[in-house]
Automatic annotation (TrEMBL):
Matching SMART domains: POLIIIAc
Pfam families, per the entry: PHP
Full protein name: Histidinol phosphatase
CDD domains per the UniProt record, alphabetical: PHP_HisPPase_AMP
Molecular function, one GO term: 5'-3' RNA exonuclease activity
Chain ranges of the Polymerase/histidinol phosphatase N-terminal domain: 3-68
Matches recorded under InterPro entries: PHP_dom, PHP_domain, Pol/His_phosphatase_N, Pol/histidinol_Pase-like
C-alpha cells in the first residue's frame, strides 16, 4: 500500500486544491495520505467532502515552523479528527498564521533592499488570503516575476531563503518546546520534519532528547537522499518514538512528486496507534 504522510495544498503554500491533491493521489494508487499544511487544518476539513469520491484515508496533520536555539525547525503534528474542533489548537494556529505573514512581509522588504523589485501585491496573488503567507509564496512570486528568458532556477531561488541566504529570516516566535506541548495537549503526535535539512546532526539529537517525539525518516531530499534516509533510519530506531515519511509535495513544480517516496505502511499503523494513545 502506498502512503504519503507529508503533503501540502493551496490552503498553505501548495499549488493544488485539496480536491486536486486527492484526485492525483487516487490516480497514483495512494491509499492513505496526510495533509500537513502550514499552521492550518482547513484542508483536512475540506477533504472530508471528497474521501468517499476518491476512496482515500486522510490523516489530519499540520506543519508548524518553530524555533530552537535561534534555528528554524519544522515540526509535524498528526491528530485524530477532533483536532478540527479543538479551540486551543485552532486559536493558536490563527495567531501563528498572522505572525508568519508579518515575517513574510519583512522578507519581501529585504528582497527589495537586495535590489529585486518584487511587490507584496505579487506575493498576495499566489497566496491563500485565509492562510499563512510564507517564503514558499514569495518564491512562487519571484518565479512569476521574471520573463521566461530570465527565469531563475528553483534551487537558486530556494537558496535565498536558506540559512546564509540573502533574505533568510527565521521564524522565532514559536518555540519548539511550546509546539511539542501544544500538539500533545491537543491529542496529537509530534514528529520532527525533514531532519536532513537542518544540516546539523547534533541539533537533531538534541531535539529528539527534549521530549518523546517522532522523526520523519523517509523524505524527498534533493541531494544525498538514500544516504540521509539510511542515517535517520538508524537514529530514529534508536531515539524516536516512531518514524514517518512523505514527499513534502507542494504541486507540479515540486522536485519530488506525490507518493514518490517509499514509506513503509507500518509507519502509518504505528502513528495511528500513537495518536489513539496520546488522546
Amino acid at each position: 500500500m502506498f502512503i504519503d504522510l507529508h503533503v501540502h495544498t493551496e490552503e498553505s503554500d501548495g499549488a493544488l486544491s485539496v480536491e486536486e491533491v486527492l484526485k492525483l493521489a487516487s490516480e497514483r494508487g495512494i491509499e492513505a495520505l496526510s495533509l500537513t499544511d502550514h499552521e492550518t487544518t482547513h484542508g483536512v476539513e475540506l477533504a472530508q467532502h471528497y474521501i468517499d469520491k476518491f476512496k482515500l484515508k486522510v490523516v489530519p496533520g499540520v506543519e508548524l515552523v518553530t524555533a530552537f536555539k535561534d534555528i528554524e525547525v519544522h515540526l509535524l503534528g498528526y491528530f485524530g479528527e477532533t483536532c478540527l474542533n479543538n479551540l486551543q489548537l485552532q486559536d493558536r494556529l490563527k495567531e501563528l498564521r498572522l505572525q508568519r505573514t508579518a515575517l513574510a512581509y519583512d522578507m519581501v522588504k529585504q528582497l527589495q533592499r537586495e535590489g529585486l523589485s518584487l511587490k507584496w501585491s505579487e506575493v498576495e496573488k499566489v497566496a491563500n488570503p485565509e492562510g499563512t503567507v510564507s517564503k514558499g509564496h514569495i518564491m512562487h512570486a519571484i518565479h512569476n516575476h521574471f520573463e521566461k528568458s530570465e527565469e531563475i532556477p528553483w534551487r537558486v531561488i530556494s537558496a535565498l531563503f536558506q540559512p546564509g541566504g540573502a533574505v533568510y529570516l527565521p521564524f522565532l516566535e514559536h518555540s519548539f518546546a511550546e509546539a511539542v506541548d501544544l500538539i500533545y495537549a491537543c491529542g496529537g503526535m509530534p514528529v520532527l520534519a525533514h531532519p536532513g535539512l537542518l544540516n546539523n546532526l547534533r541539533i537533531v539529537n538534541e531535539l529528539l532528547s527534549q521530549r518523546p517525539i517522532g522523526l520523519e525518516v523517509y523524505y524527498g531530499y534533493w541531494e544525498k537522499r538514500e544516504t540521509l534516509i539510511r542515517e535517520f533510519e538508524a537514529l530514529g530506531g534508536e531515539k524516536a518514538i516512531l518514524i514517518t515519511g512523505g514527499s513534502d509535495f507542494h504541486g507540479p513544480f515540486s522536485q519530488v512528486t506525490l507518493g514518490q517516496i517509499d514509506v513503509p505502511y507500518e509507519c502509518l499503523e504505528i502513528l495511528e496507534k500513537g495518536i489513539k494513545s496520546a488522546f
